[in-house]
Design brief:
6 helices, 5-stranded antiparallel beta sheet, 4-stranded antiparallel beta sheet, 2 domains, alpha+beta
């Protein structure tokens, strides 16, 4: 969760930044060191300005991308979802949604997420990643808080998605296998319909996940 978040904010990051930050810092450092080495080598054959420019072209894009990725966060305060990507933060009030969709990417590594809009902004929240032998799902606290936020509104698709999340919570609580979990069934639904690699589930398909 970002430093300085108000008390009670619930993180919605599928993969916590603490797990990937060390690798991203190493990547940024490697890019800078590589840029310096290349600049030194080029300096033997060209002017200092050209050497610095070449080094910067090699180092800056990768290092900057890694540092901006480290800033990515998704969190919930009350019914408002905040998604920070790089230097920009978008906020959507889940109780005032005008659109709510389940987005599925069915591939070797499959992803299930929700895309929510309130008319002013649109945010995407990854909920689960699956491979053939397992996966990673949003933690119970995040699922519960997101379900409550979506249930606070009156949009039928949002309420249906909240029901799917509650079903996922129940499946996790009883230790259900993958095929009994609504989020994994979303991947199976997309595959069986032949809508790959990415699709948006229909309202009928979403309702079927909660059954």
């Amino acid at each position: 969760m970002p430093t300085g978040d108000p008390a009670g904010a619930v993180p919605l990051d599928l993969i916590p930044s603490s797990l990937i930050a060390p690798r991203l810092r190493k990547l940024a450092l490697f890019a800078v060191l590589l840029g310096v080495v290349v600049a030194v080598v080029v300096g033997f054959f060209a002017s200092a300005g050209v050497a610095v420019l070449v080094g910067a072209i090699i180092a800056v894009p990768t290092a900057l991308s890694a540092l901006l990725t480290m800033r990515r966060r998704i969190w919930l305060t009350g019914t408002t979802i905040h998604a920070r990507h790089g230097l920009r933060t978008r906020s959507v009030d889940a109780s005032r949604t005008v659109s709510a969709e389940v987005v599925v990417r069915a591939a070797r590594v499959s992803q299930v997420g929700v895309r929510i809009g309130d008319g002013n902004a649109l945010v995407s929240i990854p909920l689960a990643l699956y491979t053939d032998d397992g996966g990673r799902e949003l933690d119970l606290l995040g699922l519960r808080a997101l379900a409550d936020a979506l249930n606070a509104g009156e949009l039928a698709p949002a309420v249906a998605i909240a029901s799917v999340l509650i079903g996922q919570l129940r499946a996790e609580a009883r230790g259900a296998g993958l095929e009994e979990r609504p989020l994994y069934r979303a991947v199976l639904t997309a595959r069986e319909a032949g809508r790959v690699p990415q699709t948006v589930l229909s309202d009928h398909e979403v309702a079927g996940l909660a059954d």
